[in-house]
Structure to design on (336 residues):
């Protein structure tokens, strides 16, 4: 029957360093896995891409430079429109996260392994983002940070309930941030592999001859579905990276412009 | 009932959560088109809000999906 659609998410060790003693963590496995390899490739792709587009800079951009500027301007405008004037300082973080996630998502469609379909990776990004929100929030506002949970103009009777809801929703932010990216990439790739499995299964049925030949139209339909889904996955890959960047900006805006929405 | 059988049924039931996500995302895009056709000049500026809204609505469907996966393979 069809291959297991979950198999593609398995982490395999490419180079095994065996058991090592690490400070703080203790005894653990150390290995260079396919996840590391895919992340390294994504990293190299971004560095090479940005080096190439900025190698021959002109005031009037050529074709390659325009591609890089497009990407750059998009995130710059995003930070400007959501955070405002202070957005320029946070631009490096947002752009780094955006381009890295975008590269990993798109390379996942071309290589055999999708890094962003590992919960550990997306959770790390979410924790980094929320960690930055907390650091900036306390550094800029001190204990005034807690005003984040007290919306202005709420009747005093409702206040305890509202504060509780706001607090829980703040705690859920990193969870949804991590799960959205993880779930989208996992779900998309599972759906792709399930339809690809149908092609193989119906093809083997048709190879048997007789009534099995009825499987051919089904296999063709599944193949068309795989092509359509792959196109959709490219859109999702970009969209999820973009959504992550937008939400990062929104969460940062909450603490940067605390108390005086603009 | 057998535990594995119950797990499979539970995973199937968890997919029902996608109904809500479907309604939510459909609502957002439908209303966006509705507004965009009335005032096309304002549509371009709201694309960002559109996708954020869709992503937030979709996240709850994703939660249902993750629960289903956890039940089936966890």
């Amino acid at each position: 029957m069809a291959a297991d659609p979950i198999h593609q998410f398995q982490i395999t060790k490419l180079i095994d360093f065996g058991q090592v003693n690490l400070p703080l963590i203790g005894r653990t496995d150390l290995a260079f896995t396919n996840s590391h390899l895919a992340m390294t490739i994504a990293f190299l792709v971004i560095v090479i891409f940005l080096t190439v587009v900025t190698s021959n800079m002109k005031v009037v951009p050529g074709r390659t430079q325009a591609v890089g500027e497009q990407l750059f301007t998009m995130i710059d405008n995003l930070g400007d429109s959501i955070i405002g004037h202070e957005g320029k300082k946070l631009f490096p973080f947002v752009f780094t996260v955006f381009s890295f996630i975008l590269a990993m998502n798109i390379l996942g469609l071309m290589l055999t392994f999708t890094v962003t379909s590992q919960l550990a990776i997306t959770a790390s990004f979410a924790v980094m983002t929320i960690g930055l929100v907390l650091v900036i929030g306390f550094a800029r506002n001190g204990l005034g940070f807690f005003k984040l949970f007290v919306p202005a103009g709420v009747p005093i009777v409702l206040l305890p309930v509202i504060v509780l809801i706001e607090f829980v929703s703040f705690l859920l932010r990193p969870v949804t941030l991590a799960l959205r990216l993880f779930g989208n990439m996992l779900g998309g790739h599972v759906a792709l592999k399930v339809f690809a499995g149908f092609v193989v299964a119906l093809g083997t049925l048709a190879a048997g001859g007789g009534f099995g030949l009825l499987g051919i139209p089904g296999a063709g339909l599944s193949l068309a579905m795989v092509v359509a889904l792959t196109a959709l996955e490219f859109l999702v890959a970009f969209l999820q990276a973009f959504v992550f960047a937008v939400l990062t900006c929104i969460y940062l805006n909450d603490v940067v412009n605390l108390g005086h929405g603009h | 009932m057998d535990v594995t059988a119950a797990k499979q049924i539970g995973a199937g039931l968890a997919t029902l959560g996608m109904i809500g996500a479907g309604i939510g995302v459909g609502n957002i895009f439908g209303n966006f088109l509705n507004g965009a056709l009335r005032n096309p000049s304002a549509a371009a500026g709201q694309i960002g809000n559109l996708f954020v809204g869709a992503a937030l609505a979709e996240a709850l469907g994703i939660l249902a999906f993750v629960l289903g996966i956890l039940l089936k393979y966890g």
